[in-house]
Amino acid sequence: MKNLLIILFLIASIQITSAQETAIYEKYGVTVGTLQPGLEVGESVKNFKGKDQNNKTYSLDDALKNGPVVVNFFRGSWCPYCVKHLINVQDSLSMIEAKGATFIAVTPENQERFTALAEKKGFTFEMVEDKKMDIMNSFEVTFDVNDGYQNMLKKYENDLTKTNAIKKAALPVPATFIISQDGKIIARHYDPNYKVRMSVKDILNTLESI
What we know:
This protein is of the alpha/beta class. Helices cover 42% and strands 17% of the residues.
């Protein structure tokens, strides 16, 4: 009887934790059943290509020939947390590049919108349009946006079915992956809470350890 009660208690605890996590994720706009787990440290990354803010084709493989690459996924120019993080990166970009690395920001937002952001904020790192969400899916950071969050964004005149290049209400977890020249992930920050990002300090510390 005692063992049975312990088992029932554990099951109930797991169910409560799961329900709490679901509620938290939904707060961040995540349709929980669609949330991808993100690639792990040690996994290899596939090459990807995309058009940047200067309408040039970016290739991850080409970038890795010159050194490590920091890949950041940002939700769009409409997200103040994304913009603040990218401003912090730009302010310290010379230090990242001094480590022999490059920084790239990948977004599902259409090129016209993030190009306007780059020009306004003076971003000199490359920003790449994930036109069909192929990059997001290859890093396993994609999720469908729930109706409640979509409706909230529309109040601020942002309809993801119009501002995303693929015309679909899907977003990436605002994750950051640091990739070594052999194409393997050596560090990652993955958190569905869009208010939390990998700090520039952590990026630099990782690059220093290579």
